[in-house]
Every structure is written in structure tokens, then in C-alpha cells.
Specification:
By secondary structure, the protein is of the alpha/beta class. The chain has two domains: 327 residues, TIM Barrel (Alpha-Beta Barrel); 43 residues, no CATH class. 52% of the residues lie in helices and 9% in strands. The strands form two sheets. Strands 1, 2, 3, 4, 5 and 6 form a six-stranded parallel β-sheet that branches. Strand 4, helix 8 and strand 5 form a beta-alpha-beta unit. The radius of gyration is 26 Å and the shape is globular.
Length: 451
Amino acid sequence: MNGKIKLTTYLTINITLVCSLALLALALSLRVGAARKGAAQQATATTAASASPERDERLWQRALKLHRRATIVDGHNDITSPMVDEDYDLGTPSVGKFHTDIARLKQGGMTGEFFAIYVDRKYATEGGSARRAMDMIDVVYRAAERHPNDLVMANSAADVRRAKRQKRVAALMGIEGGHAIENSLYALRDFYRLGIRYMTLTHNNTNDWADACCDKPRHGGLNDFGREVVREMNRLGMLVDISHVSDETMNDVLDSSSAPVIASHSSARALANHPRNIPDDVLRRVTKNGGVILVNFYPNFIDQRAIDATRARAERLKPQLDSLREQYAADPKRLEEETNKLYAVNPVPATPLSVLIDHIDHIAKVAGVNHVGLGSDFDGIPSLPVGIEDVSKLPNITYELLRRGYSEEDVRKILGENLLRVMAEAERVARASSRSVSGEGSLQRLNETKR
């Protein structure tokens, strides 16, 4: 009897306990759900232009259909650096490590990708700029030769359209850093022969003929040789790129160029006050020139909140950063790794995709919808907006543009048609001005490199 009572009591207590725990779990679930809902509502309220928490499925399907049919051209991708420095093969999946591989290029609907032939500023002082550029050009050709069913080298707007029909990605190339030509128009012409179709006149460093955005000016924009570089690029059909240059250089280029210019990866300074971005007065001049501004995706170029937070973080972490620089002064790669680890545990607020679309909106309003496109800077930047974490996520941009009321025709322009129009016009200007690469080329060069 006592055993039965004990058993009954035991069962009663346990049933009561289980019921209590179930009720507690339900209450906690409801509370967490309410908290999550409140957080989502707060996030939406603080980013008024951000995407709706619930995707419109009908609009999404329309966006996917448009995206598949569109010709999509990205103006700037830095995956070439690890292709050279780490022997990275684009055919190898790299999710979580890089922003770009062949599978994700195709998943994102890419038609034409400008691979950046990026020449670090150190080569301008240490020497070897042209060799570095040649190494990077070679890895692009190597990728196309290794993966002929997926990639094809392209030199013209017509080549890009042909690649679309063939369901391959057109591999284009643009030099980033005008010091790569080592002050020689002879070298400029040879780079054109190898397939270079744009050149960023400077990187962040002022060179011997053009002032940069983020360095001490020496020429008040372009000097005489710099203007000759622009004219020779026009004659060849190589696009003049005003990303990274100073405002004075931007205006000198627009004064000198007879062909449309591009900014391969720059955004609107009116929305984010960074010297890498393009001011409104230059945007209006680009309209008259017929050029195109290709919007950079980097939060620290497009999101003023991220710019301010990053600056505050650098000040807060200055002692640790100084210590790392001293400790790894002879090991730049390790310094970068350790710095990134420090930043990872001290993150800045995430940037929503809406901020990127805001820049497209602004340029479309100031310069016109015919003068804006995409210049991602994939694999040249450490972070990206939420929703565009790698090249496979490009359909999200198409969806957001449709959601904001852009027509399908205008979305096609932004995704690639504007850049192809500019390429075709630069080619037309070149055909009208010259029928040879070297025969009518300028013989000017600077014989001494100024330090």
C-alpha cells in the first residue's frame, strides 16, 4: 500500500512538473517570439529604405525571370589577387573564403566580369609595376583556358553579347593603378593588345602624372603627360576610369576625354562622405560626357553610419592596432590576419542592401538612369551589405530595383546595358580616330620616375 501511495505521489509530482515545464516553455517561446518580432519591427523602422521582412514571391519570380534574360556586367572584381598570390583556381568552390568562383558567377547570372589587374602602390616605389600587371593578366587567361566551357576572354561589347548567347561568362580586364604603365605610352598600347579595356588612372597613390583621391596632390589634377595618357586611351578604345582619382583629376579627365568615361567602382559622395566617391557636380558632367558610374558595394564607402563606426573603432582600438603593427612590421600578411581577427570581435553595424540601392537611386536621379551600373569590388573588400554577400546574390539587386518601381528596361540598363553602351561608344570613337594600335600612337613618355 505504501509503495502504491509513493508511486501515485511520485507520478502526480512528475506529471505536475512536466506540465509546469511545458507551460514555462510555451511562455518563454511566446516571449522570445514577441522579442524577435519587436526586434524585426525596430530594425525595419530604423532602416526605412530596407527590404520588406517578407519577400513578395510574385515579384521575386518576375525578378528572376528578368535577371536570367538580362546582360549583367560587373565593372570590378579583385579575385585576381588570390588567383596570383595563392594560385586560386576559379573552378574551385570557395564559399566562406572568397566572394567569387565560377559556380557562383553563373548562379548570380553574370554575363561579363571585369577582372581587376590591381597593382599595389608599393610597386610604384619598389619597382615591378608592369611585371605585376602582366602576372595578373596571365592568370585571367589561364582561368579561361582551364575552363573554356564556362569562361571566354572578351575585348569588346560584341564579345560580351556573344558570351551571353553561348551561356559563358565573358572575362574582361581593367588595370587598377595607372603606375602600371611605368610612365610609358608604349606599355599602355601593349596592355591594350593583351586585352586591357579600362585603366584606373591612379590607385590611392598620386603617380607621376595624376593626383589620387587619398594622397597628397602634386599636379592639380592631370599634368600634360596625364592628358596625353587620356588622349591615347581614347584613340585605342580603352575606357578612362576615374575611380580612386582626386576631384581635380576627375574634372581634368572630363575636360580632356573625347569618349565616355567610367568610374569602375565608386559611389555617391552626397550619401557617404568618402573621397573615393563621386560628387554631384561630377555626376552631372558624366551625364554630358555620356559615361557611367558603377556603384561600389563596400559598406565603408556607401554607408555613412559604417564609415563613422569604423573611424570610432579605429580610435578605440588604436593601442592594440599600434601593437600589432609593431609586432608584425616584417610580416604584412600576418598583420592583416591579426588585424582582421581584432576587428571581427569588434564589429561595426551591418549595412542593409537598401543602402546600396540608395546609391543607385541617387546617381540615377542626378546623372540619369542611363549613367549608373554595378562595380561590386568583390574580393577587394572585407565586407558587403546584408543580402549581397557574394556574387551569387546579384538577383537580390534586381528584385530591390523592381520593388522600388524601376521599369524592366531601366533595370536592364543598370545591370549591364549602360556599361555596354559606353564600351561600344569608346570603340566607335577609337575607330573614327585611328586604324592602328602603335602606328599612330604617341611617342611621349616620362623617362624618369619622380619620387
